[in-house]
Design goal:
172 residues, alpha/beta, fumarase, globular
Length: 172
């Protein structure tokens, strides 16, 4: 693995282009949290154009595949259909990093490449991640409770780039 890179979100396309499979990163700044229940709704907002009225901006963003609960945050499996199937449209709308756990399909790696996005995996250590949250708020679909679309401000979230430029850490 290469040296640790610090990423501040929102992120530039140039920063994304510099990421390689196996890079270890520390994530800082504004990120979004969503999983099975909410990501298809966000994808639908992109498809029907209502995303333009949303109280959040996906440009240069990161979506962490998690729910936010009083117990904290920890990654869910990114290869669940409701999550993996939304990565292309979310990336086309500006998301530059998807963060979760688990192996994704080769087709998803290609879709991420086409949309100049990457996928990173994060250790499932809820206590460590929760302690690195500076702020949090619900930004959409509050009625979904812990599955609502949340915005976090984080400091030094550790992750490893698992898919970049069509290559996957799982292929090695």
């Amino acid at each position: 693995m290469s040296e640790k890179k610090v990423l501040n979100f929102p992120i530039s396309d140039e920063d994304v282009a510099s990421l390689k499979v196996g890079d270890t990163v520390l994530i800082n700044g504004r990120i979004f949290c969503g999983r099975d229940a909410v990501l298809p709704r966000i994808a639908k907002m992109i498809e029907d154009g209502s995303i333009n009225q949303a109280p959040f901006d996906l440009q240069g963003g990161l979506i962490f595949h998690t729910a936010v609960s009083p117990a904290g945050v920890g990654p869910t499996s990114s290869n669940k259909y409701e999550i993996e199937s939304t990565m292309g449209i979310l990336s086309s709308a500006g998301i530059r990093m998807h963060l979760g756990k688990g192996e994704l399909k080769k087709e998803t790696a290609e879709i991420l490449k086409e949309n100049k996005a990457v996928y990173a995996v994060i250790p499932p250590v809820t206590a460590t991640l929760t302690n690195r949250i500076v702020e949090r708020k619900v930004v959409a679909f509050e009625q979904l409770g812990m599955e609502a679309f949340n915005e976090l401000i984080v400091k030094d979230y550790p992750a490893v780039i698992a898919i970049a430029d069509g290559e996957s850490i799982y292929d090695k």
